[in-house]
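As noted in the main text, all predictions were made from sequence alone. Below is one such record, for Inosine nucleosidase.
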Amino acid sequence: MTPKKIIIDTDPGIDDAMAIFLALRSPEVEVIGLTTIYGNVYTTLATMNALHLLEVAGRTDIPVAEGSHVTITKGTKLRIADFVHGSDGLGNQNFPPPSGKAIKQSAAEFLVEQASLHPGEVTVVALGPLTNLALVLSVLQAIELDPAFAKNVGQIVLLGGAFCVNGNVNPASEANVFGDPEAADIVFTSGADVVAVGINVTHQVVLTDADREKLANSNGKFAQYLCKIMGIYYSYHHDAYSTRGVYLHDPTTVLAAVNPSLMTYTEGVVRVQTVGITRGLTILYNKQKRFEEVTEWSDKPTVKVAVTVDAPAAVKLIMDRLMES
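Prediction:
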């Protein structure tokens, strides 16, 4: 089969690094670009890290387009997870600056161009806040870019939401949705083919301390690199969750594009709370009941939401591909 064209919208990030390497090692997909966004780090550093990771992988042929530095509502007070990933986003290793540079196009412009060049063939795998996608899916914003993007893009596979479980920023909210709730609500209600992988699923996929040792003892280039940067990520999980391992949020989301059959899905309307103490809360309406009143839920398009994952198979696939690199 012809590999699926994917663009990874990313905020690297330790698990983003693992996800990017996994995608590059997966013959089922062809990475045609990286776009960057704030989240684990600020956008400028996300771009530098994306360029650095491509240099490590020997794939400087893949373009990097820098994304938004502010939320969809122009907010500049951003939540950055340096306490999870390190001040440099890559485990406080302070690697030398990359020699490459981002392309002149913005992330939004690059997304529109690629979806137009390959209508129906591009999957965007979004691993951070959804601002870049909202810029090309918002009715108000898309007029300046391309109002047909929702139809041209093949699929959007996103890491976002905490469906029927507590969040990881606070009890209500998952980090990527919390990073720009208004953008997330735009994406979920855009009418594009959206698959959401929430932390209700990614928390089932754990790379244990023993798995880390297997990676360290392998000859895989990517495995060796990841073991170098993952110390702070393991320490955070040990302290925050009292678990002997780390959750593979971003790699699991990539697997939803690489091998969708590893998960099961439900379908419904997803809306995002944008105010109050539950800001960032994702709510799925399964349409099993017909309501009489016309509300903000009425006539909204549905999305797919992952509900289960074959976790052992997912971990094995991730480890095999990293150790064989």
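Residues 43-57 form the longest helix (15 residues). The chain has one domain: 4-323. These features were considered when defining construct boundaries for the mutagenesis experiments described in Section 2.9.
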